[in-house]
Write a structure and sequence with these properties.
Keywords: Membrane, Transmembrane, Transmembrane helix. By secondary structure, the chain is mainly alpha-helical. Helix content is 72%, strand content 0%. Helix 1 runs antiparallel to helix 3 and helix 1 crosses helix 5.
């Protein structure tokens, strides 16, 4: 069984991932121009608008969100760890890319981008490294 910490982390990461997935599906151009919302231009500074790529990014994020939140609901450690691996398979290459391609952003944006992406790596790592909760079995039949 999962610990409460694991479930909370899975749900939090899942909700953030779902929001990041819905926006590009509902408004690809809005996502391109305005992500993350409080500072604009993070996506548009990376290159030309590609609706297909942005919609695929949104769909991938929704699929990952379903996996993360589903793992919290199912409640087993094995499923939580599988969701953590799935999140890392997306987050690590995404983070590594931005480590090498953030120089054109203002310092505050660079810090926010790299910090937020580092969290998308750290949270699944915590999920993977948190030991499962031991089930107490009754000695009586």
């Amino acid at each position: 069984m999962q610990r409460t910490l694991t479930r909370v982390l899975l749900v939090l990461l899942g909700v953030v991932t779902a929001a990041t997935g819905l926006w590009p599906l509902l408004s690809p151009m809005g996502f391109y121009q305005d992500f993350p919302g409080f500072r604009h231009g993070w996506v548009s500074m990376e290159g030309a608008f590609d609706e297909h790529l942005i919609r695929d990014f949104g769909a991938l994020n929704l699929a990952l969100a379903a996996t993360l939140i589903g793992a919290a609901v199912i409640g087993t450690t094995a499923v939580a760890r599988l969701a953590g691996v799935a999140a890392l398979l997306f987050a690590v290459p995404h983070f590594v890319y931005h480590l090498g391609h953030a120089g054109h952003f203002e310092t505050i944006d660079r810090v926010m981008i790299l910090t937020s992406l580092a969290l998308t790596v750290a949270v699944p790592l915590v999920v993977l490294l948190t030991p499962s909760r031991r089930e107490i079995r009754s000695a009586t039949p």
